[in-house]
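<backbone_tokenisation>
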Amino acid sequence: MGRQEAPTRPALPPHKRLALITGGARRLGAHLARMLADDGWAVVVNYRSSDAAAARLVDELAAKGGYARAIRADVSDKVDVATMFASIDQVEGRLDLLINNVGIYQPKPLPQVTPEDWDAHLQTNLSGAFYCCYSALPMLQQTNGSIVNIGYAGVDALRANPHATPYEVSKVGLLALTKAIAASYGPHGVRANMLSPGHLSNSIDLPDDMDAEVPLRRAGTLDDMAQALRYLLSAEYVTGQSLDVAGGYRL
């Protein structure tokens, strides 16, 4: 698809840490962008179609004195991804954190899953993350940076999910990729971890009986995810892990 960029922001201040969040214009991605900006990070917000939301978020962060820029790119398109990272290299000149937040989740029983459903989940959730990691890793090695991939609760203790099989397969693959990056690039100063939510309060399929599903008896919040991200960013000896942010769901 064609790619358009929001107007270039002012030059990145020296020594400012830079985070790229894919799917960063709305929902969880936007919340994490706000958290990082509050913590002093510069932020690049990737989006595919949410032009207005991305522009509003960038203006919001800039109004608070932060650095933010939006880049339109479809992460399932490796050419778009390569162009996005070339722009970051040219404009900001560094990268300290990649958050692979883009993901599609279209639950349906396995007998109803089509090849098109399968391809869409794998291409966006797994191949897209790989394309971003591939382009990010040379930059992250220069800054001892890190990767945080967004998974789902219980991904490291595989259980059948016949109502969302393509999604589950994509996230299991993403965990394998996370661990492989952690093992391969740890000697180069790069950490890679996964944040795995359970039932977030804005999920499309919250259970009718939350108390029965979740030991902590509530849905997770975007703040819960932000708190866990802060932990992973500060835990300099943690890599290759999937951290469930799920209130005990799927124990």
Observations:
- The longest strand covers residues 191-197.
